[in-house]
Amino acid sequence: MWREFAGDETLWAYFPSGPFADERDFLEWLEQKAAAADPLSYVVVELGSDRATGHLAFLEIRPAMRVIEIGSIVYGPTLQRTPAATEAQYLMARYVFETLGYRRYEWKCDALNARSRRAALRLGFTFEGIFRQHRIVKGRNRDTAWYAVLDDEWPGRKQALERWLSPENFDSAGRQRVSLSALNGVGRG
């Protein structure tokens, strides 16, 4: 994973950790993540290889309330903007709702992180507001944008994700025929 992330400091712009000086520092961070129960980290591995291309985690895990957050999302350049990146998100959401039986799935990000905010909407999360000065990250106040999908919304979001991920949604050059944003009604008044 270090090879996938090394040299691209922009990956860590809105992240509480990183960028990392070297592979040793990165591996220390990764080992800390692996040892924790919350956040509970996952690595995205390219199918048919052992190449790790991304990291994401469940955090703010509250079983008694049946609420969980997806976060700590870092996708390397080969995973960004690919069907595999969307599929990783789909698999995490399906696990949350269908295996764990949670009722609320949250996405929180730095309010300045336009890419993360667009991704949340594209994936079917609903914007709920801004928590002003929610955290201090890298020495500055961070406003946090909050999004969520609720259990009664999941069937529709699941259908949109499955339709988008379907091979029939891609032409012979791999271009999508219908965008996930369109399937989730993003951009409509």
Q: Could you please describe the fold and organization of this structure?
A:
The protein is an alpha+beta fold and 189 residues long. It has one domain (2-183): Aminopeptidase. 31% of the residues lie in helices and 30% in strands. It contains 6 helices and 6 strands. It has helices at 2-5, 23-35, 83-99, 114-122, 154-165, 180-183; strands spanning 40-45, 52-62, 67-75, 104-110, 126-137, 140-150. α3 (83-99) packs antiparallel against α5. It is globular. It starts with a helix and ends in a 6-residue tail after the last helix.
CATH architecture title: 3-Layer(aba) Sandwich
Number of strands: 6
| Annotation field: number of helices | 6
Strand content: 25-35%
Query: If you consult CATH, what is the topology?
Result: Aminopeptidase
Q: Rg, please? A: 17 Å
Mean pLDDT: 94
Q: What proportion of the residues is helical, as a percent range?
A: 25-40%
Looking at CATH, the homologous superfamily is: Gcn5-related N-acetyltransferase (GNAT)
Largest sheet: 6 strands, mixed
Protein structure class: alpha+beta
Tertiary shape: globular
Distance between the termini: 40 Å
Total domains: 1
Give the ordered list of helices and strands: HHEEEHEHEEHH
Task: State the CATH class.
Answer: Alpha Beta
Q: Which regions have little confidence, pLDDT < 50, spanning 5+ residues?
A: none
- Report strand order across the widest sheet: 1-2-3-4-6-5
Précis, in short:
The protein has 189 residues and is α+β, with helices and mostly antiparallel strands. It is 31% helix and 30% strand.
Helix-strand blueprint:
Layout: H1 2-5, H2 23-35, E1 40-45, E2 52-62, E3 67-75, H3 83-99, E4 104-110, H4 114-122, E5 126-137, E6 140-150, H5 154-165, H6 180-183
Parallel strand pairs: 3-4
Antiparallel strand pairs: 1-2, 2-3, 4-6, 5-6
Helix pairs in contact: 3-5
